[in-house]
Amino acid sequence: MTGWRFVLRASSGRKAEAVARLTVRQQLAYKTDFLLRSSFLLLILFVFVQLWTAAYGGDSAKVISGFTMKEIVWYLVFTESLTMAAPPLTAKVEEEVKSGDIAVRLIRPMSYLGYHYSTFLSEAVFRCAVHLLVGSAVAWSFVGAPDFGFGWPGFMALSLGALTVAFLLNASVALCAFWVEETAGLQFVLQKLQFTIGGMLLPVDLMPEWLQRVCAWLPFQAALYLPARAAVHYDGAMLLRYAAVQIGWIAVLGALVAFMYRRGVRKLHVNGG
Amino acid sequence: MLALRTRGLSKTFKVKRKEPGLGGSLRSLFRPQWETKPAVRGIDLDVEQGETVAFLGPNGAGKSTTIKMLTGILHPSSGEAEVLGLSPWRQRAELAYRIGAVFGQKSQLWYHLPPVDTFELIGRVYEMRRDEYARRSRELIRERNRSEETTVFLTSHDAGDVEELCSRVVVIHHGGLLLDEPVERMKRDVLNRKTINVTLADPVSDAALALPDGARVVRAEGRTLTVAVDLRRTAIEQVLATWIGRVRLEDITVEDPPLEETIKHIYGMRQETEAGA
What we know:
The complex is a heterodimer.
Chain A lengths: L4 H4 L1 H18 L3 H25 L7 E2 L2 E2 H17 L3 H11 L2 H5 L5 H32 L7 H24 L2 H4 L3 H12 L13 H8 L3 H4 L1 H8 L3 H32 L6
Helix pairs in contact in A: 2-7, 3-4, 3-7, 4-7, 4-13, 5-8, 7-8, 8-13, 8-14
Chain B lengths: L1 E16 L3 H10 L2 E16 L14 H9 L6 E6 L8 H5 L2 E4 L12 H11 L4 H16 L5 H5 L3 H16 L2 E4 L2 H10 E8 L5 H4 L5 E7 L2 E7 L5 H8 L5 E7 L3 H8 L11
């Protein structure tokens, strides 16, 4: 599998690391972008805190579908941090195909998907850390300190898998640009699926029974719901099960993305002089 | 040994034919009509190792498409090619270590970061030893700047230059092939140089012309001289000023350097014709 060969080879690992380091340094140049994102996050969280306060009737002891109000607000901090951390991979690939800049990526002895995976992951991890800091400030002041214990390392561990699943979902849409050159519509659908049945806005547990069963068979919850739930409701056995679900989806989506890439790159029309 | 060999290398693109207007767009949506457009028609080319070949043609002649096939980015519609003994599109990854390609307008620089970081990354991607890569890039930068100063170049955001140097370092290291589209450098070269064609009323020796630094006679046929002027070192007016009142002029024109001169200049070849005769 062309796309994943980079993970297996040591030299490729070093290449990925070099790209990752440069990506993070490049990120530091976008201060305004960070400020805007962070203030937007503050606003969203504030609105949701108000909403949930009304839903719980201000009762901090009340439990809805296994979640207290404090847990649900912190759950949102985790899902929002992850969602807003994902860089616009689809737009990047589409732009590379349209402008023909993809040519300079393809002539390098480095896997194309591997390159994008390392920029995606490093950018996302960096942004996620900033969002967690900002989000924690809001949640802490409205619903109190987080006392999740092992939930924190649990979240960290599942976040890597979650961002990898998010990358693969986005990559499968992004690679459509090799055929159709216009992927905004597909991207819109993917994003909305993540917001709803991916469990970004509210935990899957709060959804109707039948929808929960549908969600269990889809990859979207592996990218948001699983790590956020593991953070607020930590349980060792559950963590292992969640990790297994993520690994399963990574294998399936990884195969799909590698297959799409192999087919797409053969028929790719590289624009421009 | 041959560095490059192609036989009947061709590429056709399938494009949707659209009629003008909304009606045309709708028709093409439901009943698309495809048209095949030949981009490259049967190229046979042999290039020996160490040879420099200029690949010229008007816009749309298929130069870039050919280079893209030779780097393995595009799959040809028919024909075959061998680059350094490898099939570009079947062994693209392997070949990538040994060729450097600079695509005219494309850039892969990381804006907001100094170009030296791009150098580092490229060195890593091509699996070169760090000190080796640093030493070679320093050498080339020095050569380009014609000074010991390596930072001047590195702080200027000249994408084309950085890309070309990256590719050159890689090629020198892995002993490969450099495919280059020197569009940017040609533009700059044309901007920095002018040619004065002058016909004198009386034959005059070069010394009597008293040319300033940066101007020199590149061709002399009887009383007609061709003078190349490097605008970074002297101005056209300065050259003309040295002549006024000293030599009798019959005819004079100032023009951009001819294409072949520009190409020779870029690739650092010696001017064949020096003054004299």
